[in-house]
Give the backbone structure.
Amino acid sequence: MNRVMSMLHRPFVRRSLAAVSALLVFTACQPHTSSASGAMPQASAATPPVAATPAVQGRMMLPDFASLVQQHGPAVVNITTRGKRIQVGRGMSPNDPMFEFFRRFGIPMPNMPSPDGRGGPQAPGQGPGPGQGDDDGEGMRQPGGEGSGFIVSADGLLLTNAHVVDEADEIIVRLTDRREFKAKLVGLDKATDVAVLRIDAKNLPTVRIGDPKKLRPGEWVFAIGAPFGFENSVTAGIVSSLGRGLPDQDSRFVNFIQTDVAVNPGNSGGPLFNLDGEVVGINSQIYSRSGGYMGISFAIPIDLASDIQKQLVADGRVARGKIGVAIGQVSSDLADSFGLDRPRGALVNSVEPGGPAAKGGLQPGDIILSANGKLIERSEELPTVIGLIRPGTDAALEVWRDRSIKRLSVRVAELEPPSAQLLAKDNAAPEGAAVADRLGLVVRELSAAERAAPGSEGVPAGALIVERARGAASDAGIRRGDLILGVNGKRIKSAKEYRDSVAQGGKVVALLVQRDDQQVFIPVRPG
């Protein structure tokens, strides 16, 4: 290095380097169409061509998004939803005694700030789109929104996000050729945020399904959707990470594809494509402090969505497996203490007494390394793998115990079986289906696990949890997850008492509702 540096101080060398540098800058600035003779000596015919630099090679390998969009874009649709018109309490002041009541129970009010301004994962497109959900000037409002979806079968089957169509009374699907169809909701699964729609049409363009397991961080991907209502918008980026778990209980069954593809409100439910033109994911969530795109977006792997689609089409619901364990992450220190070669797997913190894992021989301190041949690298992957195993079948587990691998077989049970818990059965409905009562509610008794959960100590016996709220109950402000404690001034002690009280109620039924730590009577006028 000293010899090289000393050469730079010699006058001849400095002049030579300056001349070469000037030549390089000059030639780099020349237009490609220049044919002036004498500008520089022509290379001899024997001079070999200069190899392309890595930067030039990179430019030559940029993907042709235009051709991909032209070929696969017609299978992407725009989805518009509308709900029931509701009274909004026009012009209510924050100082009004009823303001907090409307705010807490989710009844829309004009000019009320959105609660989604905090940072964290959130579903793009949860708020009303352009022209949707506005006050009509008479104190009435029709909730609605916009999203995206894509066609998976030529006879009219579509995939989108559950949060796009949940609680919608009307779903309109618009194709790129501007044809519009009213869609029927085949089914939805909130745990994975997947919904299946059907439209009455034939010979439709369809997407091709890819394999998200072949994705690699850094790989090009692109999305087509309707951000802010701008239909058929294309955005591109790369895969940022794979198998990403989110700190959200509702997302525990999904290991997301993280990308830097721009996803905004209205992109929800749209497809994420690879460079082969195959759908590898459904755009679902963004990480944002503003409600808009901030460089991080998440997509549901299409193989998981396809499995959910098959169950919803065949059975109308998703049967999800469980083995009855509480798990934690395996850190580097824990891996060392257990004698594991590196941090991997899911550490069993506790085992449900009498549950499938206990019967199969799992113990606290075991580290689950694989399930049915699928490797578990991080603990958040285990619920996804177990959840997709059909209840009643055996799962082959590899666990790390006493510094060696042991193989166990566990009979998978169903997570939260709905058969005995859903109320208001309709004789005309399929077996196991839930039909709302005259108030528009589907409620159930709390499970033993829910009663044992932290924070549930003060929940009265006989309280019922709201599984679904529609119609009059939804209009009154009741929503999923609320607890029903009483009807018409009387505490209920069982599901039967609730049914009888609602059936005997008059034109208005007063429900005692608990949400968080607050209790309030809500009058519901049956439709």
About this structure: The chain has a mean pLDDT of 75.
